[in-house]
Design a protein that fits this description.
four-stranded parallel sheet; single chain; 14 helices; alpha/beta
Length: 384
């Protein structure tokens, strides 16, 4: 097998995502899964679920993942990479544990995992690893072989993730009224998280204080700078920009990353900017938080202000992203075989770690998390 297409030691790839409801009857049970253990009343979940009901109770995320699965399988086949691709979710069908069980029954024992979250944070990385640990524990309790799972590195600065977003921003600028185009402000958006979680995101060396944002903010800012530089090179215009946040869901007394996109639109309008491009760089696909928080809520705010806006596309199932996943997989496989592969990354931060170190994106309460330096595995735990 040619070295450049050799997936060994991996015998399968798992696409691991968040999940979402696929009909009105799914909405509250889905939200119960997401908020399990927090004691949120069912009536409150019905209120929270209203934005899903605006879209018929269907989140776009599952359809997006099916498209990405197809793109990955097509890319793998076209490049002679003979590796099956599976899909499992944390919070809705197909559930992660069920998918891993199927993979084990299909004979897979060394599984590479791609999470549909590109950046470092507890909810964007370690929580996925905790869910993997939980699922592996279920397999062990059922007497099944427990596979080794390795999470692929963060890909926020991989060219195959960034370049589709550059094209999206350029297309959005072109869609604005010509007289407003050159003066347009670029608002790069991502999910707001508690400042305490942001400050402890990434490795211990990345951790900060006082709401500075740790690796989470630093990684997004690096991506934004790459996109701004590329737009300048393409158009000759140096657009003003800022990293802003959306989708806050926490209690009002807990500090979260700011400014919120709607507040930012008001502030930019008051400052006299002629238009804004909203670029959701923190999201892999056009799931509910993009469709509602940007396409519905923020766009309505802009219309109220009389401020022209355009929303650029997420990466979704772009063939360049599928190729990036192949690259990440083969890079990690080569490293596992003792090779020193080329590691593609744009910006100033370089390629991230393969194995999350101890203390990386810690949870409030310690829990086992697979695919990290602190993971001993269910088999080791059973004999401890």
């Amino acid at each position: 097998m040619p070295e450049q297409c050799d997936p060994r030691p991996y015998d399968a790839l798992l696409l691991l995502s968040f999940g979402g409801p696929e009909g009105p009857d799914d909405v509250v049970p889905f939200l119960e899964n997401v908020t399990r253990g927090r004691g949120i009343p069912r009536e409150r979940l019905k209120e929270v679920g209203q934005h899903y009901f605006l879209f018929g109770g269907v989140s776009p995320i599952n359809a997006q993942n099916r498209e990405l699965l197809d793109a990955l399988r097509k890319d793998f086949a076209e490049h002679g990479l003979d590796l099956p691709v599976y899909w499992g979710n944390r919070n809705w069908a197909p559930y992660l544990t069920d998918t891993l069980r199927t993979m084990v029954h299909d004979g897979h024992r060394r599984i590479a995992v791609l999470a549909t979250s590109a950046y470092a944070s507890y909810s964007g990385c370690r929580q996925y690893r905790e869910n993997l640990a939980d699922a592996l524990g279920v397999l062990r309790a059922e007497g099944l072989p427990v596979p080794q799972v390795d999470k692929l590195r963060h890909y926020f600065n991989h060219p195959g993730f960034i370049r589709p977003m550059i094209d999206g921003v350029l297309a959005s600028l072109a869609a604005l009224p010509e007289e407003a185009r050159d003066g347009a402000h670029l608002a790069f958006t991502t999910h707001s998280i508690p400042t305490a979680a942001a400050d402890t995101s990434g490795t211990p060396a990345d951790h900060t204080r006082d709401g500075e944002g740790g690796a989470y903010a630093a990684q997004h800012l690096d991506v934004a700078r790459v996109i701004v530089d590329a737009v300048r090179a393409e158009t000759g215009v140096d657009h003003p920009w800022r990293l802003v946040y959306q989708s806050r869901s926490g209690a009002p007394h807990i500090p979260w990353l700011e400014p919120d996109i709607c507040d930012h639109l008001e502030e930019r309008h008051a400052a006299g900017v002629p238009a804004v491009v909203m670029a959701p760089i923190g999201f892999v696909s056009d799931h509910m938080e993009v469709k509602y928080d940007l396409d519905t809520e923020a766009t309505a705010k802009a219309a109220e202000l009389g401020l022209p806006v355009a929303r650029s596309a997420t990466v979704g199932a772009d063939p360049r992203f599928a190729a990036a996943v192949r690259d990440l997989l083969l890079e990690r496989a080569a490293a596992e075989r003792g090779r020193t592969p080329e590691r593609c990354a744009l910006g100033s931060l370089g390629a991230g770690h393969d194995l999350c170190p101890v203390g990386c994106c810690p949870a409030r309460a310690p829990r086992p998390a697979a695919a990290g330096a602190d993971w001993r595995g269910p088999a080791a735990e059973a004999h401890a």
